[in-house]
Amino acid sequence: MTVTLADVAARAQVSPATVSRVLNGNYPVAAATRERVLRAVDDLDYVLNGPASALAAATSDLVGILVNDIADPFFGIMASAVQSEIGGPGGRAGGERLAVVCNTGGSPERELTYLTLLQRQRAAAVVLTGGAVEDAEHAAAVAGKLRRLADAGSRVVLCGRPPAPGTDAVALTFDNRGGGRRITEHLISLGHRRIGYIAGPQERTTTRHRLEGHREALAAHGVEDDPALTVHGRYDRRSGHDGTVELLRRDPSLTAVVAANDTVAIGACAALRGAGLRIPDDVSVAGFDDLPFSGDAVPALTTVRLPLYEAGARAGRVAMGKEEPPPGDVATVRGELVVRKSTGVPR
Known about the structure:
With 347 residues, this protein is of the alpha/beta class. The protein has 3 domains: 1-57, Orthogonal Bundle (434 Repressor (Amino-terminal Domain)); 59-174 and 307-334, Response regulator (Rossmann fold); 176-306, Response regulator (Rossmann fold, 3-Layer(aba) Sandwich). The chain is built from 12 helices and 12 strands. It has helices spanning 5-12, 16-24, 31-44, 51-56, 73-84, 108-120, 136-151, 176-190, 205-220, 237-250, 262-274, 308-319, and strands at residues 62-67, 98-103, 125-129, 155-159, 170-174, 195-199, 230-232, 256-259, 284-286, 303-305, 330-333, 336-338. The strands form 3 sheets. The chain has a 6-stranded parallel sheet, with helices on both faces. Strand 6 (195-199), helix 9 (205-220) and strand 7 form a beta-alpha-beta unit. GO terms for molecular function: DNA-binding transcription factor activity; transcription cis-regulatory region binding.
């Protein structure tokens, strides 16, 4: 049986006029109401009828780029690279397309809402960047939306994100586990055995994979994996600072800190200096990503370099059909260990 606009309205407990306003975007609607309507649209798999449904069969000149935090250089670099590749033949405005950067703020609900909106806008392509939320229900919901996007003609590319089984999405995934292993092996090779680890949010795939690599390196070299030497926080400077303070409280004898990313590492360095400790003479610090400021930090930061711009540009080309997808629609992008002045032999 065909689902009607009235069915959506009843499911969302709003008026049909409100549903129309949400779908057309031509009148302000409260955020909570909009999300309730979009959830009902998805639950009922509602599609526009009549001439509008014929229009929906064609994609627009819009390209959606989903990021977790646009203020984080990790995401800004990839979004910029994707946008650099989305022009070219095929667009109805001189070959150009409109890039819309959707900042989820780390909210799984916002991620789902943006995917729904991009489907309604008949986006030519959608690129999702960064790690995924590790929740089975959320993963199933995202997979369903990616399938709907593909069915509507949108190309979907995951950049720096694990593959999404059961969908047609192309995945350019970072080797976070391998990078985590290499950075810890570097510290162990210098002689460190009491190594603190400041991990990212526990629910993110990036966090788990980098931490697994760290633990693999410890196990391979017979170094104790002390649970007290791992703390979790956000991927920001404050978490690096506070996490380091907590690690020093738990074990004043630690000789190295591995940070979830370079921004966290900068916070860790600030906390160590605040405690009167020298880097790397007293405590070594290592990061991840090799963000633009990492080589200019004092001391310059040892890290794992991920080719963020190159990966984003490739994602943009694949999304625009300028480059063939990798075999099996999955490619692994490796990181490179970059040794600088923030790491040295333990005191």
